[in-house]
Amino acid sequence: MDARAPQTERPIFVDLDGTLIRSDLLWETLFLVARQEPALLWRVPGWMAEGKSRLKAELARGCEMDAALLPYREEVVELLRREKAAGRTIILATGANEKLAHAVADHLGLFDAVMASSDTVNLTSARKLDRILAEHGEHDFDYVGNSHEDICLLEKAATATVVAPDRTAHLWQARTGSARIDAEAGAVRAVIKAMRPHQWLKNILVFVPIALTHEFLDLQMLLAGLLAFISFSAAASAVYIFNDLLDLTADRRHKTKRRRPFASGAIAIPTGLKLACGLLAISLGIAAILPVEFAVVLAAYMVTTTAYSFFLKRMLLIDVLTLAGLYTTRIIAGSEAAGAESSFWLLAFSVFFFLSLALVKRFTELQDFGVGAHRSKTGRGYVDADLETLSQAGMSSGFAAVLVLALYIDSPAIREHFAEPYLVWPLCPLVLYIIVRIWILARRNEMHEDPVVFIMQDWRSQMMIGLGATLFLLGAYV
C-alpha cells in the first residue's frame, strides 16, 4: 500500500542553480569577485584545493550580490506561488552558499526554510538527499530540480518536476514521464547574439589603409585584409563575451542590456567561457599566418580591451580615449597585415572621429539612466551632471576630425594619392553631416545603439558614405 502523505501535506524542495534561476551562483560570484574585488582572484586556486564548499563560501563573502537582479525562471516562480497559495510548505534546497540562498529566499518571500551549503559542507546530490531524508521519509516530499546531480532526489520524491534538464536529467524524465518545464527555445540564436556579429562591421576599418593605397585589385593585400578582418572579429567577439560576463550586474540594471544572453540567463556562463576560448583560438591561429607586426597589434588590442573590461571603462575620460584608440588600432592592424602605410593624417582623423562617437556612446548610456544617475548605478565614471560636458566635448572632437580632413586635403601630401584633390573637398561636409546628425539624435534621446553600428546601418549615413566613396574614386582616377 502506498503510504505517501497527501500532496498538500508534503513539502516541496526546490533547487536553485539552473532550476529557480537560469544561472549558477558559483559562476555568478566568481565573475562578481572578478569585477568587484579582482585582487582576490589569485586566492581562488587555494580555495578550490580546500573543497568546493570553501570555494563557494569565500566567493560569496568576497562580493555583494543583488538577489533581485538574478534571472529567475518565471514558470518556476509562478508554480511556487500557486503552491504557496494552496498552503504548501516550500523549502529552498540548494548547493549554493547559505548567504546567497538566504538572499534569494528573502527576495522572493516564498520559502518557509532554506537548506544550503556551508563553509564545510557542499549540499548537493546525495548530501542534499540525506539532509531531506533525515526529516522526511522516502516519497514524503516533492522535488523540483534540473541536473544529473538531482537524479537521486527526483527518484525519492513523491512528485518530481524537472526544469530545463541537462542530458542525464532529460533521459530520466523521458523514462519516468515526470512533470517537466522546458528551457526557453532559441539557444543557437542566443549564441550568435552573444558573439555580436553586427559589431564586426567595425572591423571593416582594417581595409582602410588598403583602400588609401588605391591597390583595389591587389589580391594578396585583399586576402591579408580579409584574414585580419576575421581575426579581429573573432577576437572582438571573445572580448564581448568576456566583458558581458564581467558586466552581468550592470547589464541587468539596464533597460535593454538586461536582455543580453548572459544577463538574461539564455546562455550558461561555462558555455560562454568555452565559446570565448574557441573564438580566441581562431583569432590567434589566423594571426599566426600574418606578419608578426599584425600579431603584436592584435595582442596590444586584446590587452587593452581586457584592461578596459576590468577597470578602464570605469575611469572618467580614460574610457572614451581608450575606445578611440581601439578603433584606430584596427586601422593600424590592417596596415601591418597588408603592408600598407597608415599616414599621420589618417590616424589623427581616426582618433578625433572615433573619440566623438565614443562620447556619443557614453552620452546616450548616461541619458538612459535618467536624472539621478551616479557612478555606482551606471558602472562608469560619470554622473548626470556630465551630460552637457560630454555633448560639448563630443561635438568638438567631431569638428576637430573634420578640420584634420580639411587640412589634409589642402596639404601637399594629398597630391601623392589624388590627381584632382578638389574633388575630395566635399568629404568635409559629408563627414560633418554624419557627426552633427548623430549628436542631434543623441540629444533627442533617439540614439539607442552603438553609434558606429548606427552609421553602418542608417540609410542616410550610407548615402553619405557612398557619395564620399564616389568622390574618393573620382579624385584618385579622373
TrEMBL record:
Assigned keywords, A-Z: Cell membrane, Membrane, Transferase, Transmembrane, Transmembrane helix
Signal peptide residues on this chain, from the entry's feature table: none
InterPro entries membership: HAD-like_sf, HAD_sf, Prenyltransferase, UbiA_prenyltransferase, UbiA_sf
Chain segments annotated as coiled-coil in the UniProt record: none
This protein's GO CC annotations: plasma membrane
Domain of life: Bacteria
BP term (GO), one: glycolipid biosynthetic process
Transmembrane intervals: 223-242, 262-282, 288-308, 315-332, 344-360, 390-409, 421-440
Matching CDD domains: PT_UbiA_2
GO molecular function, one term: transferase activity, transferring alkyl or aryl (other than methyl) groups
Membrane topology (UniProt): Multi-pass membrane protein
Protein species of origin: Aurantimonas endophytica
Descriptive protein name: 4-hydroxybenzoate polyprenyltransferase/phosphoserine phosphatase
Localization per record: Membrane
